[in-house]
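Internal QA ticket QA-208
Title: Verify multi-chain structure generation after dependency bump
Assignee: T.L.

Test input:
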Amino acid sequence: MLVPAIYLSAALFAIGTLGVIVRRNAIIIFLCIELQLNAVNLAFVALSRHVGIEGQIYVFFVMTVAAAEAAVGLAIIISIFRHYETVNVDKFNLLKW
Amino acid sequence: MTDTLFVLFAVVSVGGAVGVVTGRSPVASLLFMVATLASLAGIYVLFEAHFLAAIQVLIYAGAIMVLFLFVIMLLNLGHDYRADLKFGSWSLLSVVVVGLTASVLVQGITGSEADDFGGHLADPAAAAAIDLAVAEKGAVGAIADPLFTDYVVAFEVIGLLLLVAIVAAVVLAKPRGGSEGA
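Actual output:
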């Protein structure tokens, strides 16, 4: 069951990448990044059956970092929304030349 | 039985992932994401990672997704049905980037498969060791034991990271100036 799980992980990661590129809503882009993190978690869990319990411990750390990232990222989105009244990433061009 | 369940969960998770990307309203995308996360929790159970399956449902599908939902409600984006997919040159770019990502991943996987994942695939010792640890210490103890011995420094650092993230989130989301109060 390891190899199908790794392919599933690759498919989820690719779909997450697609979402990050094609969507404009900052919150959905964020959801797609979470999807990519989960794809990697799945690979870790699948490999832990063959390599050792460390795989599951890394997943624990990845989940914690994902929670921290979601909190900070959503705070940034709220802060940007206060300024621009939108979450459309095409409208934030302060750092664009 | 296990294979049937795996296929079921895999189909639900990929369908949910496609729904996240194509969902018209942010709330619909979020609910598709919850379906994906729940089916991934099911796959974790199939891989005997029961504790991770539990925290996947509690932390991810519960806490983090509710945080997203709160932000969608706070910013009143729930009925934002305007299509926000990028088309034109972006669709070409996305096809190229996603195709490259997928081909690199598939190439890496087939390479590791030929290599038998560094000889780990045929070796049942790791799975037996995990099963023994789970039988001896329980599903939580099997993870907690290495977490509080070999990985205790990383565990403390991750606690510090969470504290920093909480402070940063409060500071960032607070209105500027402060004179306007709440």
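Spot checks passed. The domain at 1-85 of chain B is CATH 1.20.120.1200 (Four Helix Bundle (Hemerythrin (Met), subunit A)).
Status: verified.
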